[in-house]
């Protein structure tokens, strides 16, 4: 069973995968309105989720690494050690 | 420039080490059809691409390949965590261990170090896109071969994800080739090299 943190990171991975796949599709189909609508919808959700995750647990990007007392970016877990 | 996201593109959580299979999978890190070659190929070919949409696609796929490189490195790392000296000797991992301990270094399964000659930047859009399509298929075949050797579902799962991405990228490069040919002389695609030649009637 995944805990809340793991579940959230897993969901961010799924949503980002949608965005990566759509981005590459749109690179060769730049006028596909339906694909763009889909992209716009999920891009908004991903941004919200990454912000929320970074506030609750640890920053996923340096732009969200605002810190106090301890440098949060440096204390985040390493992706290659598993779980995330 | 690039921005790092502190997470893998697809989860890798391998609990059971297996130095024998790590020596096979490392080929997709630094082998002839691996992810290092893939990312360097696309990110280097961009500069001589005459069409913005194709250069953009190479940037985006090249960037995704860097994420795949990180995933393969993670698989190798997790397969070689907490090894005993006995396991290292028995599995044949000793030949790698003597030079790299359990660090991750770009080499092919047979021990050949990574080399830029694994890929080409020809500076000709048709040549480069055909190479890219072939590269995706070669990587797909390598993942198929790996899947025949791997039994652990925790290893198979991320490998299957990577294999599927090769097929999608093959499709995208095929579309880029079609977009390119639409811009060329349909009677002779090779009349000039749009990455290099400058003439008044070949610039649209």
Structural key phrases:
heterodimer; A: 84 residues; mainly alpha; 63% helix; B: 204 residues; Ferritin; 0% strand
Number of domains of chain B: 1
Structural class by sheet pairing and helices of chain A: mainly alpha
Biggest interface, residues from each chain: A-B, 29 and 29 residues
Distance between the termini of chain A: 14 Å
- The CATH topology assignment of chain B is Ferritin
Indicate the multimeric state. heterodimer
According to DSSP, the number of beta strands of chain B is: 0
Overall, the morphology of chain A is elongated
Strand content of chain A: under 5%
Percent of residues in helices of chain A comes to 55-70%
SS summary, helix count of chain B: 8
Low-confidence stretches of chain B: none
Strand/helix succession of chain A: HHH
What's the total helix number of chain A? 3
The mean pLDDT of chain A is 95
Computed structural class of chain B: mainly alpha
